[in-house]
Amino acid sequence: MSSESLISVVDDDASVRTAVLSLLRSVGLKGLAFESAEAFLESGELTSTRLVITDIHMPGMSGIDLKQTLDARGSKVPVIMITARSDASVMERALACKPSCLLKKPFDSDELVACVERALAV
């Protein structure tokens, strides 16, 4: 994995953002954190982002909405979705957007790193 790979972490939970950024740094990757999908989209960082890791359930725009927005804009940036909820309708909607990975919280660090490696290898 290249340290040039910028990963944007979008989650309304500060502890999750901090933990994911720390994990990314531990494997030599650079990440930026955003507290909402709107903040990420308004940041101008999409052009330098190689991968988005987003929570599904957030106030305002959800991770599913973010993925659909990126797709509508023609973005090919892979998206990893994470969620604490596992109700069938949400999981079905999330999988319909074709994320690179869909992980349930709490997820294993090695599992997330493997998803990141696969997404960046494409």
UniProtKB/TrEMBL annotation:
Modified residues (4-aspartylphosphate): 55
Gene3D superfamilies reported for this sequence: 3.40.50.2300
Highest taxon of the lineage: Bacteria
Boundaries of every Response regulatory domain copy: 6-120
Alphabetized SUPFAM superfamilies for the sequence: CheY-like
Keyword entries, A-Z: Phosphoprotein
Protein name in the entry: Response regulator
Species of origin: Pyxidicoccus parkwayensis
